[in-house]
Amino acid sequence: MDVFAPLQWIADRITYDLVGLSPESKAGSALDFFLYDVPKVLLLLAVVIFAVAIIRSFFPPERTRKMLSHSRLYAGNVAAALLGIVTPFCSCSAVPLFIGFVESGVPLGVTFSFLVASPMINEVAIILLFGLFGWKIAALYVVSGLFIAITSGIIIGKLGLESWVEEYVYQIRMGDAGELPEQTWPERFTYARGYVAEIVGKVWPYVVVGIGIGAVMHGYIPDDFLVQYAGPNNPFAVPIAVLIGVPLYSNAAGVIPLVSVLTEKGMAMGTVLAFMMAVVGLSLPEAIILRKVLKPKLIAVYFGINAIGIVAIGYLFNAVLH
């Protein structure tokens, strides 16, 4: 059962009945995408932020830090990446949990392993890829996503970029370092509602703008655009597909139908998977929300490392599956 089906129904009624646009039109596709995704993402943000706040009320920051900071043989990065797989959120809704990790003092590289894995390795996408292309492609998708998440987290951790996190984050962490007194449920709910209002109140305009840009590209860039410029005969197909995918916004399940179309039109599988990973793992709304806790340099490093990893995986898949 699709819990967001009512939102899709409302978006369809407004776009096609009230406004009168055709489902086959570019404007209709863009508007319908926008009207559906804006409330969906904002609802996901609110729910995830609220849940994270409730969880944080039970686990003092020091306890959370200890759970993910034991990094013998990089176990912390592996644990965070595996945790990301079982949190079925898009890149935007995974950010609040990432913020909670940073504010709780979890090592920066470990938190990035979670942030990469959560949107990139989606269980719905695994099931759909298995049904469309078989278990080998689905397994390659999972393994490559884990590789990118763990490796990027390790690299960011080794670079020692903690100074590129906003200073107030460490002030929050220092202020919360002690054990918190036991809270009642009403107190937990009050804290969670305040946390939701604070974060959503700051980022919602930027989320709307980011999804608006993605909606325009979703509606007005034809499917054969990618095949034309990132087809199997172009040696630069993989980086082109990644560059095109980064500004787009969708979750893994939403981009799977496009993946199927591109594959049928002759695009190499590695290029298609690289495009999908770029769409779901590197998005403009995500960067805007991350700006709440990270300085632009660190956001650029995060996007750069992941883009390079995705490109490398795309070339590897094209070579293996050729």
The biggest sheet, with number of strands, parallel, antiparallel or mixed sense and barrel status, is:
none
Shape: globular
Question: Radius of gyration in whole Å, from Cα?
Answer: 20 Å
Instruction: Give average pLDDT, whole number.
Output: 79
Instruction: Write down how many β-strands occur, each being a DSSP E stretch of 2 or more residues.
Output: 0
Show unreliable segments: 174-178
Estimated share of beta-strand residues: under 5%
- Whole-Å distance between the termini? 37 Å
| Structural class by sheet pairing and helices | mainly alpha
SSE pattern: HHHHHHHHHHHHHHHH
| Quaternary organisation | single chain
SS element count, helices: 16
Helix content: over 70%
Number of structural units classed as domains: 1
How would you portray this structure in words?
- By secondary structure, the chain is mostly helical.
- The chain has one domain.
- It has 16 helices and no strands.
- The chain has helices spanning 5-18, 26-58, 61-69, 75-85, 91-103, 108-120, 123-133, 135-159, 167-175, 185-220, 223-229, 237-245, 252-264, 269-281, 284-290, 296-320.
- It is globular and about 60 Å long.
